[in-house]
Amino acid sequence: MNVMIGRFILISLIAFVLPSEVASQLDIMPFPQSVKHGEGYFMIKDDFNVSLEGPGSHRLDAYVQSFKYRLGAMTGARILWQTLNKDKAAHLTITYGETADLNPAVDESYKIVVTRDKGISLTSRTDIGALRGLETLLQMVIIKDNKYVIQEAEIQDYPRFEWRGLLVDVCRHFIPIDVMKRIVQGMAAVKMNVLHWHLTEDQGFRVESKAFPRLHEKGSDGQYYTQEEVVSFIKFADSYGIRVMPEFDLPGHATSWLVAYPELGAGPPPQGLERYFGVFNPTFDPTQDEVYEFLDGFLGEMSALFKDEFIHIGGDENNGIDWDNNEDIQVFMRDNNIPDNHALQAYFNNRVYDILTRYGKRMIGWDEIMQSGLNKDIVIHAWRGKEKLVEAAQSGYQTILSNGYYIDLSQTAAFHYQNDPVTDDMPLTGEQLELIKGGEATMWSELVSKENIETRIWPRTAAIAERLWSDASVNDVDDMYRRLVYVSAHLEKAGSKHLKNRQALIRQLSERTMSHHLEYFLDWFQPLEGYARHGQKPRYTSYTPLTRSVDATNPDALNLWYMKAAILSGLNKGEWQLLELEVARLKAFLAESDSFKTMIAQNPKLSEIEELHKGFMSQSVEMLSLFSKLQEHEEPEDYIAYLKDRMGALEELSAAEIFLTYRNLIEWLIITMG
Amino acid sequence: MNVMIGRFILISLIAFVLPSEVASQLDIMPFPQSVKHGEGYFMIKDDFNVSLEGPGSHRLDAYVQSFKYRLGAMTGARILWQTLNKDKAAHLTITYGETADLNPAVDESYKIVVTRDKGISLTSRTDIGALRGLETLLQMVIIKDNKYVIQEAEIQDYPRFEWRGLLVDVCRHFIPIDVMKRIVQGMAAVKMNVLHWHLTEDQGFRVESKAFPRLHEKGSDGQYYTQEEVVSFIKFADSYGIRVMPEFDLPGHATSWLVAYPELGAGPPPQGLERYFGVFNPTFDPTQDEVYEFLDGFLGEMSALFKDEFIHIGGDENNGIDWDNNEDIQVFMRDNNIPDNHALQAYFNNRVYDILTRYGKRMIGWDEIMQSGLNKDIVIHAWRGKEKLVEAAQSGYQTILSNGYYIDLSQTAAFHYQNDPVTDDMPLTGEQLELIKGGEATMWSELVSKENIETRIWPRTAAIAERLWSDASVNDVDDMYRRLVYVSAHLEKAGSKHLKNRQALIRQLSERTMSHHLEYFLDWFQPLEGYARHGQKPRYTSYTPLTRSVDATNPDALNLWYMKAAILSGLNKGEWQLLELEVARLKAFLAESDSFKTMIAQNPKLSEIEELHKGFMSQSVEMLSLFSKLQEHEEPEDYIAYLKDRMGALEELSAAEIFLTYRNLIEWLIITMG
Lengths: 674, 674
Prior knowledge:
Two copies of one chain form a homodimer. Helices cover 43% and strands 16% of the residues of chain A. In chain A, strands 1, 2, 3, 4, 5, 6, 7 and 8 form an eight-stranded mixed β-sheet that branches. The first copy, chain A, contains 25 helices and 21 strands. In chain A, a hairpin with a 2-residue loop joins strand 11 (200-201) and strand 12 (204-205). Chains A and B meet through helix 1, helix 2, helix 17, helix 18 and helix 19 of A and helix 1, helix 2, helix 17, helix 18 and helix 19 of B.
């Protein structure tokens, strides 16, 4: 068997060669709250049809059409477009009680019953619940006996948290509206429900203002959303049952505003849009009445444009320098008994709060805005630490968590997955726990562009989606990684280009030479974590191309996942074929090493990985001896000593902002076998 | 060397290991009118900057930004966003004379001079010419000595024909606006300049009408472009220097109009939108004044919406049945001395002509509209045969060619490439020849959907783009195929998803199992040509999924191209390594045949290729003996006999609407060696 492909066969065996084994296993993410399996299978045929019964929902009507299209594409079934009325016999009967308005409290529960002979019923209180159920149903389609089927089951499902968001920063790099729409499709595929649109920053002001057109004209390099696009996007997201919450970051992170209106700033006029990344001085002057007049006009306009009940006012990382240096502001603070910058920001927030309230909006902001005296109907967005979430709940604020969900930091899916918003050790009453409404993954865009943002978000954000939807007890990391392979395919079918865009980048990087080899090689590496990449020289700017090797590596090195799965299969079931295949793949790559070395040496963009390749070659020799030792079933105790020894011998191989993941593999083995 | 990748290395050698060999060879498509090479190379560095001098052009300002972004992505250079004024020293100096209005006569010429030390100058009469030159420049970037460089050169370029179009049928399958935009990006990358938007058909009415909203409401299943989208699309295409010409097909192909307004039809009201493909009866009644009142209102609205000077009125395939069966129409014809349906359609066309003229539009239609008495300022779109083109020119009409450019028919790029609009044997005067204005590739969409339309258009339509732009003497088929590999990468970098979407389809088809093997296998096959796929059972409908093996095969089987290139390299240069690599790849595939067989047998969508795989296995054994014979350099005469013998023995292997291309390879060899 060819080693390059055997792995895929064996991994796929789980899905379609050994159906008896998956009888009790659904490859769905987020995993439903309750699943009971039956013995039989419902078969998808060409005459598959759908009936729909409810008060009428444009949202659901369109989703059902799209469901049929996707099911047809998957299975090849020629499914008629017509949707039947409930009274006609249908293979899938959808019944929903009401057409929901999108808000945080909307009921998203649904129930699915699959029977071999009577087909499938999907029932829900709202049309949104039905959308969620349709995504589950598509993930239930498997192959059995050379047919596409759905196993008999009864599923009851509902979200654990009502707020399951994704922040997309469209400022550090502009993300065009078609990419935003695909991100929404991905979110819906994994049952997320809030798109947090980070629209203003030092590096760009990304929304058209008709009241203050200088904002987008001066602040965006021409890269902004027109109001037409915004309206169309909100409608699009609504059709997927996803709220769109805008953020206008105030009073700091304000360079792009102050390029247009320098007179509203506390410090010197900005020289232009910020091209670097970090925390910068330009900040609104909270002592000027003109600032509030301006914000009243602007937020009034935006309140009409964005229909969601929340507006996010940011409020983070105001460094206070321009306030400290402004004599008028210092006088104002003395005159008004404002003791420090935090209190001054509180004063500012209260005035913004009044504006938003007048426009019928609820305010949410980063945890810096938390202060005594602020109205309890605001929501605190905890990012600096989970203790901020606890503090907010203790103070009586509704709160959501992003700390631990910063997907820009290249941490693993496992890390995010294990970050539960609610843990047993939290010193909170039952009532306070109720104030924790969910969380948001944050895709800050210093190091992502329109080409690679989907690859950075998916599939791993599905692990966060599961954390926020499924029961806390659904927390097996290995099983999460196993299902991530399936959810990745599900996401692609839903419209996401995360796989396509990565392959295109690798084609471009490799100049189409040995692309598959470059992909295999990079799948052993992960990008530097945290903010480490920002410490490199030359510093990243908003015009640095993001088309290097590091941009094609995954925060979850795929070969690491696969190797772990192969080893687990051996350790748990005594089945070592997967490991044999992985080893054979590695050997096959090593055998081509000279060609690969020649190729990268000739490629200007790949020269930077020459050293890594050399190191990979030598370290792989050690790893091969480790794998053969594993297969020899040594005594665990000897084994641990051996592993610890290897770990010492294996230095951390790192360059070009990426690192080899062999050490992670050994660390994991020590834990797994220890 | 690994056989799976060696091919890519060797092919790439042409580009970056043997630069001396490419000194006189540019991998550009369409090939410029005049090229002189120098010896040196200009190096792309981080400080690369651009100056722009001209009367001001939003089009070019944006294109230069995009040029810098693309060049940065390709080379990794951190190119500053600022564009300099002409007086500053720049690496690329762009100078243009005027900002053009988009129309057929626009000047698209440009001149590029590249010098090692003084950088690059790009000069043009219009901003559009500069856009065309920037695409050439991006294709000139190569790797030399581990650096991205552009070879010294002087290029003078201009189009042979002013009309280089692509028709996109968005009716049989709806093509969303984001896909349309990517198609425009691809067109610009190969210097095409007319997007012919086929907006109405029996199967769908795809544009919003505010005057007659029932048209899109009843006629589109909700799949239509809003007028906002149309305006935004025209603006987008304009920014690429591409005209958008709408087609409203009249009086036949009219089911979707008559679903909304049955009283305007000549026959019985349609039962609903047409779901099948072909020629159908519903046709406007040309004898009713109400029809012209309606068309006046509708075409008036569309004349304001679409700013191009042309409106295409279709006019094709009116079968006349509903006219023959309508007693009132028969009376009208007798009363007005209209002898036959062709004359009746002429009467209709003249009245439509009057309407369009009143709205300041020029009329163009399919060649059926040609008739004596029609005004000479209309343009005839020849599709039924090249003789229609000749007839039109002889009759004094301007004319464009689509016959031979029907890219929906799965003919090879070579076929289209060899189809010149002007040939020596045409019985035309010099003045008549001047009436031939160019041509259009036609992407009819019976068998393409939003997922695979780009894969069906690119890269092969680049061969048509070259036919219409470059000199007639640029006609070497092998060299065209060689360059198609590069232009495919260029198209991807310009935004097209033709490669990405095909790979996604193969991932889905294979359920991610042995995807690379499935890709290799399918690359030996081509789809059935012409209308053969429409003869299959069950008949194709607008809801048939286009996700079968045939949808992932290319009209130019890639392995056929590669094998031909490998054999040519041996025959012409005595270098047989490429052939060795291709043979090794084939053997490697054959060695995995059992695994592959098992995989496809378990996959419901791949069962239909089981027989093909079996046949491929056995025929490949014969082909392997052929390849080894080739490498042994037999005498050509013996060889031809052997080839003819093989050809007889190799039956045409065809199933699942695709056929194996081994016979083409042998036919080609007989011609090449004969």
